[in-house]
Design a protein that fits this description.
mainly beta
Length: about 300
């Protein structure tokens, strides 16, 4: 069960990443750098311009394991703030387990990113994880002009504490964090058969995340009916998160590219997350065309 709960935390930032209260800004638990220290002017992310959500936009996902409800994940744009001299959009992601799961397992994952509103590149990323007796804080500050990320980690479990002090890492152009990569993916607007690779920095490494668009489909959601969606095959390689064997599928809304549904097939079943709530968005979802075959809604 622990593995499945960890996968739930992964699905949230992908919507949805790796991520308690369902509202409000999440202050970082670890913040070793001065957030007001100015940084150099950073370059624009390569490729298509990013598509920022409006402040107040909020998406709620229901997560299941083998059809059993296990919790909800919430992703929201909370506010605009200054981060080291740059205007940034603060994005927060939280996970809340169902009452049944909370009765025997503690999980509180909070993930946040501050994205430069001009360039679409992350300025800093924070992650706070409480899973059972394990506590972990991670902080990454990005210097895209200097191609350097500063990383800090502290982890406690079974009475022992380990930490990585401020560590400088080389990063490639346009690198993202696990949460900001969602909005980079939205900007790509992949068409049938097209592929793109996003570089994602986390856990002291940079990983290549491949996205391939498999085509347009009709997707039926319990909360929104049948909408037009793009099916995407993501290939992730975040160490210690995904099993070595398994398949993940992702459906995004055709116009807004908001993640609608995610399914991860593993040896002992499947973990899924489906959009059940949306707030603050101006554009409605595009109705599904009649010619494509429908995908049945997931059953609780």
């Amino acid at each position: 069960m622990t593995r499945q709960l960890n996968l739930l935390a992964l699905l949230a930032p992908l919507a949805l990443a790796g991520c308690c209260g369902l509202r409000g800004s999440l202050p970082p638990r670890v913040h070793p750098l001065d957030p007001e220290a100015p940084i150099q002017v950073i370059p624009v992310a390569p490729g298509a311009a990013w598509i920022p959500p409006a402040v107040g936009e909020r998406w709620v996902y229901a997560a299941t394991w083998n059809g059993i409800p296990v919790g909800t994940a919430v992703l929201e744009a909370t506010d605009l703030r200054m981060v080291r001299g740059r205007k940034a959009l603060h994005m927060a992601c939280t996970v809340q387990l169902s009452a049944y799961i909370r009765a025997f397992y503690h999980l509180q994952d909070e993930v946040a990113t501050d994205i430069d509103v001009e360039t679409g590149l992350p300025l800093q990323f924070t992650k706070h994880i409480e899973e059972g007796k394990r506590l972990k804080d991670e902080f990454i500050a990005f210097d895209h002009a200097g191609k350097v990320a500063t990383y800090y980690r502290q982890e406690t479990g079974e009475g022992e504490t380990s930490f990585t002090p401020l560590l400088a890492m080389d990063i490639p152009d346009g690198v993202q964090d696990p949460l900001s990569s969602l909005f980079r993916a939205r900007a790509l607007k992949l068409l049938d058969g097209q592929e793109e690779t996003i570089q994602v920095n986390t856990d002291e490494k940079t990983y290549a995340t491949r996205l391939k668009a498999l085509g347009r489909e009709r997707l039926t959601l319990e909360a929104f009916g049948t909408v037009s969606a793009i099916r995407i095959d993501p290939s992730l390689d975040y160490e210690g998160v995904l099993p070595s064997k398994g398949r993940m599928q992702l459906w995004v809304e055709e116009e807004t590219r908001i993640p609608l549904k995610m399914v991860l097939e593993i040896k002992i079943g499947s973990v899924s997350a489906e959009l059940i709530g949306r707030e603050g968005a101006a554009a409605p979802f595009k109705p599904a065309p009649p010619e494509a075959a429908p995908i049945p809604p997931s059953k609780p």
